[in-house]
Amino acid sequence: MMSQIDTPLHLDDAVISDYRENGFVRLPSVLPPEDLAHFGSEITRLTLALNTQNKPMEERDTYDRAFLQIMNLWRQSDVVKQFVFGKRLAGIAAALMRVERVRLYHDQSLYKEPSGGFTPAHADQYYWPMASDRTITVWIPLQPVPLEMGPLAFYRGSHKAEFGRDLPISDESEIQITAAMEAQGFAIDEQPYALGDVSFHAGWTFHRASPNTTDRPRSVMTMIYMDADMKLAEPVNHMQAADRDQWCPGAQIGAVIDTPLNPVIATTA
């Protein structure tokens, strides 16, 4: 199969400026349908095979109603590894962050099941023991995501806000962050994703997703990349300590997060 996953994609300066101003960017037609079908079938297979969530939706809490979440699929499959290590997405991430190289933090599939609940407002970097904000999450839908399926929605410019950075994802974060964003004038930006659209958002950009009211799963793959020179910071909460132990095993405080689980991803051919 002739894949475009390793073919570089040039970004205009205006796109990079937009990302830095708003804390996120949605890009159209980043990956062709045949790539998404090929890699997506393996991602879906592994997500379902490795999922351990078996409670009925009505018995789950808010977090578990939001999505099924399986991490580091790249270690389970060479096909998924090719996708996660793809030069196109890594190159875009590096350009948006204005860094020379990126390093993988971890990947995760996020499947919002039919009738799956809302994803509360939060910022990803609350969970990450990193010494800088040069982090980015790549959100890749494996099918079109109309509004009724719960596309990722961003608070425009909210990566500049301080309130809410100490809140884990929860019902309380949804209430408090939503109120704070509205009060500070950070407008919510919610749009559907066509097949091939991909979004990139900064670690401190606040975001959420509506429920999936369709009869189909919202199948999404994500990768979290960081500056290749990122150093490990002293955890400031118990979630960061857990992340350090799980995703950065052996890394030392103040040293570059250079472990077997955090390889540098090539960004050019």
Task: Characterise this structure.
By secondary structure, the chain is an alpha+beta fold. The chain has seven helices and eleven strands. The protein has helices spanning 13-22, 33-50, 62-66, 78-84, 87-97, 171-184, 238-247; strands spanning 24-27, 68-71, 102-112, 119-122, 135-141, 152-155, 188-189, 198-202, 207-209, 218-227, 264-265. The longest helix is centred in the N-terminal third of the chain and has 18 residues, at 33-50. The mean pLDDT is 97.
- Topology order in helix (H) and strand (E) letters: HEHHEHHEEEEHEEEEHE
Main β-sheet, in a few words? 7 strands, antiparallel
Give the amount of beta strand, in percent. Answer: 15-25%
Distance between the termini: 18 Å
Total of helices: 7
CATH superfamily: q2cbj1_9rhob like domain
Summarize the structure in short.
With 269 residues, the chain is of the alpha+beta class. It has helices at residues 13-22, 33-50, 62-66, 78-84, 87-97, 171-184, 238-247, and strands at 24-27, 68-71, 102-112, 119-122, 135-141, 152-155, 188-189, 198-202, 207-209, 218-227, 264-265. It has a single domain (13-51, 66-265), classed as q2cbj1_9rhob like domain (Jelly Rolls, Sandwich).
